[in-house]
Hints:
Alpha-D-Glucose-1,6-Bisphosphate, Chain A, domain 4, eight-stranded antiparallel β-sheet, 5 helices
Amino acid sequence: MHTLLSQSFKRSVASFVWLLFAGQTMAADVNWIEVDRQGGRVDVRSEILINAPLPEVYAALLDYDKFAQMGDTFADSRYVEPASDGAPRIYTRTEGCIWFFCKTIERYARLEVQPQQKIVAIAEPELSDAAVSIESWTLTADGDSTVIAYRHEIDTGFWVPPLLGALIINRSVEKGTQKAAGRIEQLALSHRGTTVAQNN
Length: 200
């Protein structure tokens, strides 16, 4: 599965790079965000409207070889060896700061995919800097656009001051989500030629 995905995704690299440097204004919208924090565990939920058809958004979200370009915090992302049962696996490295507390988080995760509907990345705690990390994207078509119901439950033990922590985390998540939404839309549009060709 990884080989098939990678072959189709690599064909869109040139158009993706062009989009990044074209400076186009993207119209992706973050409809709402909720952040719940209990100790070191954070549960983020959001709804994002991407102005691209569902097949293109789905392809973009599975393009982990380019996923690091979706947001400022991803320093590295790629596919790694599949699981013993053939399920695809990914590696990501994020680097970010909350106030003046900075942390790097490495994650190896298994992907569970319902084609054109849902993608779930479940971290392997023995190989990751997170005791818990379950990240999911549920996609729904809305005309020529796509609604993403996003959720990320993560526990890294990353301590921040209790009085300032919630406000800082909320602002950081809101800013990061808005940037990621625009870049998901860019990446989705870069898949336009590929997905049309595959459907014909």
